[in-house]
Amino acid sequence: LEQARSESRVVTLDLSDANSALDRASLMRELPHAIASGQLFLQYQPKVNVRRQEIAGAEALVRWRHPMRGLILPGDFISAAEECGEIAGLTLWTMRQVIADQQVMQAHGHDLPVFINISGVLLADDAFVAEACLIVKESQAKIGFEITETAVIRDPDSAIAHLQRFSEIGIPLAIDDYGAGLSSLAYLKQLPAAELKIDKMFVMQLTSSNRDPLIVRSTIDLAHALEMEVTAEGVETPAALALLSVMGCDMVQGYLISRPVALDAFIRFLDDEGHKAVAALRPSFVRP
Ligand code: C2E
Ligand code: MG
Ligand code: MG
Ligand code: MG
């Protein structure tokens, strides 16, 4: 470990090699301090209900403003946080920050559920689950969880039991990135989730590929048969939105409506542009 520490200290200077294993090691070493010293912040991305044509909620996405490296996106540090045991602390920080931010939203007249990404590894962490339940119960906040399978769920039985606990105390659950990576029909069968989010890899080429629309339509039908609502992530074009609407997709999220933005910009979006954006979606709706 000492050797790895000194090696990673040297490699920190090599900014060109941003994705090497040792670079990850140095990020892991810095993460606890980054959380404690306020280098993390959240952005919010709205989720729109296409049938009701209204903003259904938001997803909170974490970012790291690193003093030397600038902005680091979660793709570059979440798996490191999972490996070094920092993911519980990071996620509890995220929950508390979301609750504080929701109070600001409420002061501006916006009362929306906010979904937080919960890494699969945390479903094996009894202490995290207990703390997360306590935070939600005490705050009475409208918080949902998106279950992200960035790591293999090693003990599915205990993961399902923990998800049931979340569900019982009123936390809505969504299966994230469905169709990509590790998501499986076995999870779909067992998880007490009311929402399924189709991964953006199937949505971004929806109108330019032959297979993606078939996959998306079957997934929507499968989810509906299981009485789940469907969200498409990565909706970037009016054409994709129109097609998803015809296919009966319940909710959409993507750059077409808004990129993830900081709290103040998100409140401005809710105050003003959001309604315009949602209204602007209307002419593009093609009904079956
Ligand atoms: P995710 O939960 O699937 O989040 C959606 C990702 O797609 C976000 O990337 C978002 O910025 C991006 N996105 C949204 N709309 C569009 C679009 O129209 N086009 C394109 N090209 N991209 C779009 P981001 O913020 O980099 O997050 C990546 C992943 O990191 C998330 O994927 C989630 O799995 C994870 N993550 C983010 N925040 C947290 C967190 O607080 N805790 C945990 N455990 N994971 C997190
Ligand atoms: Mg998510
Ligand atoms: Mg997702
Ligand atoms: Mg995704």
From TrEMBL:
Which parts of the sequence belong to the EAL domain? Answer: 24-274
Q: Which organism is it from?
A: Sphingomonas turrisvirgatae
Query: What does UniProt give as the signal peptide span?
Result: none
Q: Its domain of life?
A: Bacteria
The shown range, given as first to last of full length, is: 110 to 397 of 405
Q: What GO molecular function terms would the record report?
A: cyclic-guanylate-specific phosphodiesterase activity
Q: What is this protein called?
A: EAL domain-containing protein
- Residues crossing the lipid bilayer are none
